[in-house]
Design brief:
The chain is α/β, with parallel strands linked by helices. Helix content is 29%, strand content 26%. The longest helix is centred in the N-terminal third of the chain and has 17 residues.
C-alpha cells in the first residue's frame, strides 16, 4: 500500500513513465512529466519555507491546480483548496482561520519543469503519512466555514477502501473530471482515483453539457464521476446513447441522485451509475453501491471495508436503532478526519467516542444497505410527525413533467412546520393542480407540500448542490 498520494504518483512515474497522466485542452502530460513538474515546484515551495505550514490554492480547473496540490504535499505542507470565485467577504474569514504562508492564484505555469530530468520525487519529497495532508473547508453556505483536517494516511486508506468496492483497471482507466478540483469529491473520485490506477485524468476547465458529451466520446472516457444535475442535463443531449462504447462506469456523489434519473440514464446509455455517500469529514467516502452487487434504487450501498455505519436516535445519539428505522448516521473508520481546525468544541460535538456523527438522517435496511433521508437540520416536524425532504423529492422527481425538485420547510403556527416544494418543469406541460393530486395519491397527508413553486432553475452553491438556504429565504 502506498502511504500517501505523493507516493502513488512516484510509483506511477516509475512504473509507467510514458503513460498519459493529465489532459486539459491541448495540454497533455505523461507521468514522468507530471512527477517532474511536482518535484520542481515542490523545491520552489520549500525555498519559500512552507514545510509544516499551509498553502492556499485559488485556482480554476487546470493542470496547474493538479501539479500545485501534489507539490504542496511533497513540500511537507498542508494544501488548502479554495473556491476561486469566492468574494472577499467569503474568503477573508477562511484565510484568517487557515493562516496560509503562501497563496497561489490563477495559472502560474507549473508545467515549466516537464522536461527537466533533474526534477525527481526523491525520498525527501515523500510526506510522513501521519502528518496533515489537506485542510478542506466545508459548511460555508449554512454558517461559518469549518476547516476539516485530513491526514495523508486517512486519504490514502480511503482510496483503497473505495477501490475495493469500485475496482479500477490499472493502466487502462481514462477518468473525466468535471467538478471543480478544489472540491473534495472531484479530488477523491477524479484526481486521486486516476493516480492510484495509473490512469489518465481528463480535466474539463469549465462545464458545458455539449462539450462534456464530446469529451466523453473523443477522449474515450471509461469512468465518469458526475452528480445528479450533470446526469439529468446530459440526458437532454443528442448522442448520449452512444457513450457506452467506451464508458463502463459512472459514479454519483455530492447530492442525492433521484431514482428516476438513474433509471433514465441506464436505459438510455446502458452504463450503470453507482451512487455513494460520504462527507468531507469522512475523508470523504463512507459507502458505495458496487457494480457487481444488486443495486437498490435510492440507496447508497454498503459501508466500505473497515468502515462501520450505525443509525442512532436523534435525542441522545447513543441508542442504536433497528433496521428500517430512521435516525442519525454515525460512522467509524480510518478515513475519518482528525478534527476541525481551531474549533475544539465543534470537533467534540461531532467526534464522540471514536464515532463521527454525520448530521445526516438515514436508515439501514435488513441487508445493511444505507438509504439517506436528508440532513438532520433539514428534517421537518409537521403536526408532530417527522418528514424527510428526500422522500417527498423522490416522489416529485418521479412525475414525468418534473425536471428537478427540492423541498424545504417553513414555520407554521398550526402545524409547527409546513412542507414547501420547488420544482423545475421538464417542459410547458406542468400543471401544479395535477401535480398536487399526483402527490396526494402517493404521500400521506402530513407529508404533502402546502405550497408548490415553479422556478425556471433551482439556486445552486458554487459546487453545484441545490442551495436550500436560498430557497428558504425565498419563502420567509
Amino acid at each position: 500500500m502506498s502511504p500517501t498520494v505523493v507516493h502513488m504518483l512516484a510509483d506511477a512515474a516509475a512504473r509507467a513513465p510514458n503513460a498519459e497522466a493529465l489532459v486539459c485542452g491541448a495540454d497533455r502530460l505523461s507521468y514522468r512529466e507530471f512527477a517532474r513538474c511536482v518535484a520542481g515546484f515542490a523545491h520552489e515551495l520549500l525555498a519559500q519555507g512552507v514545510r509544516g505550514g499551509r498553502v492556499a490554492l485559488l485556482m480554476q480547473n487546470s493542470i496547474d491546480i493538479v501539479v500545485a496540490m501534489f507539490a504542496v504535499q511533497a513540500a511537507g505542507a498542508q494544501v488548502v483548496p479554495l473556491n476561486p470565485t469566492y468574494t472577499d467577504a467569503e474568503l477573508q474569514p477562511i484565510l484568517r482561520d487557515a493562516e496560509p504562508c503562501v497563496v497561489l492564484q490563477g495559472t502560474p505555469g507549473l508545467t515549466r519543469w516537464r522536461d527537466d530530468a533533474a526534477c525527481v520525487l526523491t525520498d525527501d519529497l515523500l510526506p510522513d503519512p501521519d502528518t496533515l495532508a489537506a485542510l478542506q473547508y466545508t459548511g460555508g453556505t449554512t454558517g461559518r466555514a469549518k476547516g476539516v483536517e485530513l491526514t495523508h494516511r486517512a486519504t490514502a486508506v480511503n482510496i483503497l477502501q473505495r477501490d475495493a468496492v469500485l475496482p479500477t483497471q490499472p493502466d487502462a482507466e481514462r477518468i473525466l473530471s468535471v467538478a471543480p478540483l478544489y472540491h473534495v469529491y472531484a479530488i477523491a473520485m477524479g484526481l486521486h482515483l486516476a493516480v492510484h490506477a495509473r490512469g489518465t485524468l481528463v480535466i474539463m476547465p469549465r462545464y458545458n453539457p455539449a462539450e462534456l458529451l464530446r469529451l466523453l466520446h473523443d477522449e474515450r472516457i471509461t469512468v465518469f464521476a458526475g452528480n445528479p444535475r450533470l446526469f439529468a442535463e446530459l440526458l437532454t443531449q443528442p448522442g448520449v446513447s452512444t457513450i457506452g462504447r467506451t464508458l463502463r462506469l459512472c459514479v454519483s456523489g455530492s447530492a442525492a441522485l433521484p431514482a428516476e434519473v438513474l433509471q433514465r440514464w441506464e436505459a438510455a446509455t446502458g452504463v450503470p451509475i453507482c451512487e455513494g455517500y460520504g462527507q468531507t469529514e469522512a475523508g470523504p467516502v463512507l459507502s458505495y453501491n458496487s457494480p457487481v452487487d444488486v443495486r437498490k434504487p435510492g440507496s447508497v450501498g454498503h459501508a466500505l471495508p473497515d468502515t462501520e455505519l450505525q443509525i442512532v436516535d436523534l435525542e441522545t445519539g447513543l441508542r442504536v436503532l433497528p433496521s428500517s428505522e430512521a435516525g442519525e448516521i454515525r460512522a467509524r473508520g480510518p478515513q475519518v478526519m482528525r478534527g476541525y481546525r481551531n474549533r475544539a468544541e465543534e470537533t467534540a460535538a461531532v467526534l464522540r467516542d471514536g464515532w463521527l456523527y454525520t448530521g445526516d438522517i438515514g436508515e439501514l435496511d435488513p441487508d445493511g444497505v444505507l438509504f439517506i433521508r436528508g440532513r438532520r437540520k433539514e428534517m421537518l416536524i409537521v403536526s408532530g410527525f417527522n418528514v424527510y425532504p428526500r422522500e417527498v423529492e423522490d416522489v416529485l422527481h418521479a412525475h414525468p413533467a418534473v425536471h428537478e425538485a427540492a423541498v424545504v420547510g417553513r414555520a407554521d403556527e398550526r402545524r409547527g412546520e409546513a412542507v414547501v416544494a420547488f420544482v423545475v418543469a421538464r417542459d410547458d406541460a406542468l400543471d401544479v393542480t395535477v401535480l398536487a393530486a399526483y402527490l396526494a395519491e402517493r404521500l400521506t397527508r402530513y407529508k404533502l407540500p402546502s405550497e408548490i413553486h415553479v422556478l425556471t432553475a433551482l439556486p445552486r452553491t458554487p459546487v453545484g448542490k441545490i442551495d436550500k438556504q436560498r430557497l428558504q429565504e425565498m419563502i420567509q
